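Checklist before submission:
- one chain only
- standard amino acids only
- sequence pasted in full

Submission:
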Amino acid sequence: MSEEVTYADLKFQDSTRIENIQEFDQVGVKAPPSPSNVWHPRTLAVTLLCLLLLIGMGVLGTIYYLTSKIQMEKLKELQNFNDELQRNVSLQLTNNADSFKKIGNLSVTLKEMATKLCFELYRKKPEHKCKPCPKEWMWHENSCYVVLRKYENWQESVTTCSTYNASLVKIKNKSILKFIRSQELYDCWLGLSPGKDDMYYKKLDETIFSSDWFTKNTSALSGGMYCGYIRYTDLYFSLCTQKKYTMCEKLADPVKIESSLMNEEPDG
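Returned file contents:
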């Protein structure tokens, strides 16, 4: 019984093989199995993802472009504002410079007017409060003068004037010459440099532009030196060791405007 089954199986296998051979002969190559439908959803998902990425990049690019454009416009507005501000500052500085110049000119004019007014008040009242010189000193132009009624030699006179922050009188122009002559001074040392020549006298107006006016600080004089002094309208020379009066001069203080506008005692 077992032998019959075996034979039948073999016969069936042979017939199957023959059919396969015949099929191979008819077709040639056996067709591969059809692909699975599982890949279609994945492909669609990848395609959608790429599309979304492209859309996102486009949106980001548009946002970046619009933002950059807005920022450039703001930057341009700021630059224009800065340029306008600089022009306004430059114009303001120019106006301020002009204003300062006008104020300076006005200040100079006020000082000149105050000085003239104070001098007129000084002529009426020599010790008026606006006078830019110390008490008992005389005022002429930009200088103050005083005559010290004590006898001193020339070197002592120089020292005495220096204690007042002043110097011996120097006649450097016609206005000072006229003022000194009006004082009718008698035997007052002048700020001439000591010399070895003994001249009896000469007219004072001959020394106005002389370079002999004393400019150096002489601490000690050798014997036989001659110094100049004034007697009325003439210039005399004598030994520097002799005794004469002392006349000092120094620079006047600026005239204060408020002092010029106020009298110590109201007039009438």
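Reviewer check: The first helix runs from residue 2 to 27.
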